Amino acid sequence: MPLDALTVSALTSELKDKIEGGKIDKVQQPGRDLLLVSLRSKGESLRLLIAAGTGNARAHLTKMSLENPAEPPMFCMLLRKHLVGARIVSVRQPDWERMVELELDTHDELGVESRKRLVIELIGRSSNVILVGQDGRIIECMRRMDFAGDAMRRLLPGMIYRYPPKQDKLPFFTSTADERRALIGAADTSRPADKWILDSFSGLSPLICRELSYRCGGDYTRLPAALDALLESVSAGELVPTLVERDSKPFDFSAMSILQYGDGAENIRMNSFSEMLDAFYSQRDLTESRRRRSSELTHRIKTARDRVARKLAAQREELARTEDKENVRVKAELVTGNIYRIKKGDRTLECGNYYDPDCPNVLIELDPLKTPQQNAAALYKEYSKLKGAEKHLGVLVSEGEKQLEYLSSVLDELERAESERDVSDIRRELSSAGFLRAARGGKQDRSKPQAPLRFVTDDGLEVLVGRSNVQNDELTTKLARRTDYWFHTQKVHGSHVILRCDGLEPPETSVEQAAKLAAYFSQARIGGKTAVDYTMVRFVRKPSGALPGKVLYTDFKTIVTEADEALAKRLAK
């Protein structure tokens, strides 16, 4: 849910206590809509996260670990120029709007002091971060906006900065009791109370409007008391950082307890509003970041796969044409056998096909410009060419099929990637396999590949799971012992899974759990029951020249099982 004015008020108060008087040490821009400001305040090292994305606009202290781009964006460079070394004079929320404003004492290159403002607008798709100079003019903004973006405002360097226009509603947090009661008295009580509250007051989110309606039972006569109670809580500083969870997963947050979901949700009280927002957005942001980073790689893999598929289709078509080679050979033999009947200039030869038990008459086309001997030689040459092409194309088709299967397996890996390092490992794998070329002038990825995923069964046996095809190779051919057990889903792409046994026969429980992990880390993750083959590592071999992840195995058993996410989380180490 987007931040409302109520939560922004609580956040501002929290930030005011934590960062006022602090000094900015570093400014980073991990993403297009993300800023990370490192500062020192009251003996603590803190990090202020500012997000201006459409669905995640917020400003709060964070403990999230974010990866920065190789080259900082221009906006980040400009903020570093103006803000590094600046002291935060004040933190405030202008006019109870969804905004946080940092007032800063800064110095220019010549040491001249000036006061600047960093205005953080948290207003949905119009969210923005604007740096304003001492003269009130915009120095720069994260998103420049001309009339084409907003008919009411221009946000461009050099323009006088003005706050967003106010809504044509009664400002809830600055309204009087008489104003609220007069508005309620003129309300259309046939409308749902939450809809009316949302349309009538500014500063309240749909969630809070629904909550107020719930607490007064949708009764307009009880609404004034509900509104008064909320304002009293705000005035008394009784706002509570509340994470709303359903099925142990956060799906909402608020500055007050949310009762409207009844037993269908749980209110989790957090230690701070920053902690609340960190908990709510951390997984979402990581997922979005991974999706954004992996989407480009996914596109490149699909492009490569489609290219291989088109080439393979053409090769199969050519291979199909070579099936006529025996017919060409027979024609060559018949021309040779009837060469005495042919003279130069003949366009056809009609003769009996003595290679057919029924000896039917056949009509063979000839080149009238060639001698009988040349026509026979041309047919033999065509036969030889088709025979050679058949052999060559057979190899190419086989290789293309392997490449197509491999690229499909990489797409599956990418679908299951859980971190940006997973994506980096897959990119490195594709480069090694020759399907990707490093961008010219780009930074070389020097990060070390990750270790395999590790699990421990209820019997205490270690299970290792490969994260990529290259790691699957490493795990199966180098790390695993010959007496360990190897697991893989049957006929679908998936990770290699190794059950460490120390040369002993593994308990049935461990075998079942390793099989469930193999199903979970495969394309069968959401497909119900699937067959998982398993055998000792000594019966698994990698064919010479095979692409990463490809192995052959014998002496295996099969267990039918299904993916179990809860088990994977419980056994993870």
Description:
The chain is an alpha+beta fold. The protein folds into 4 domains: 5-141, ibrinogen binding protein from staphylococcus aureus fold (Roll); 177-278, no CATH class; 292-450, Helix Hairpins (Orthogonal Bundle); 453-571, no CATH class. Helix content is 38%, strand content 22%. The chain has helices spanning 5-19, 74-83, 177-185, 193-200, 206-215, 223-235, 273-321, 325-337, 372-416, 420-432, 469-479, 508-520, 565-571, and strands spanning 23-31, 34-41, 44-51, 58-61, 87-92, 99-107, 113-121, 128-132, 138-141, 170-171, 201-202, 242-246, 249-254, 266-269, 348-352, 361-365, 453-456, 462-465, 485-489, 497-499, 529-536, 540-541, 552-553, 557-562. Strand 12 and strand 13 form a beta hairpin. Helix 4 packs across helix 5 and helix 8 packs antiparallel against helix 9. The model has no long low-confidence stretch (mean pLDDT 89).
CATH class group of the largest domain: Mainly Alpha
Strand order of the largest sheet: 17-18-20-19-21-24
Question: Which band does the percent of strand residues land in?
Answer: 15-25%
Overall shape = elongated
Q: What is the terminal separation in angstroms? A: 33 Å
Itemize the secondary structure elements and their pairings.
Layout: H1 5-19, E1 23-31, E2 34-41, E3 44-51, E4 58-61, H2 74-83, E5 87-92, E6 99-107, E7 113-121, E8 128-132, E9 138-141, E10 170-171, H3 177-185, H4 193-200, E11 201-202, H5 206-215, H6 223-235, E12 242-246, E13 249-254, E14 266-269, H7 273-321, H8 325-337, E15 348-352, E16 361-365, H9 372-416, H10 420-432, E17 453-456, E18 462-465, H11 469-479, E19 485-489, E20 497-499, H12 508-520, E21 529-536, E22 540-541, E23 552-553, E24 557-562, H13 565-571
Parallel strand pairs: 10-11
Antiparallel strand pairs: 1-2, 2-3, 3-4, 5-6, 6-7, 7-8, 8-9, 12-13, 12-14, 15-16, 17-18, 18-20, 19-20, 19-21, 21-24, 22-23
Helix pairs in contact: 3-6, 4-5, 7-9, 8-9
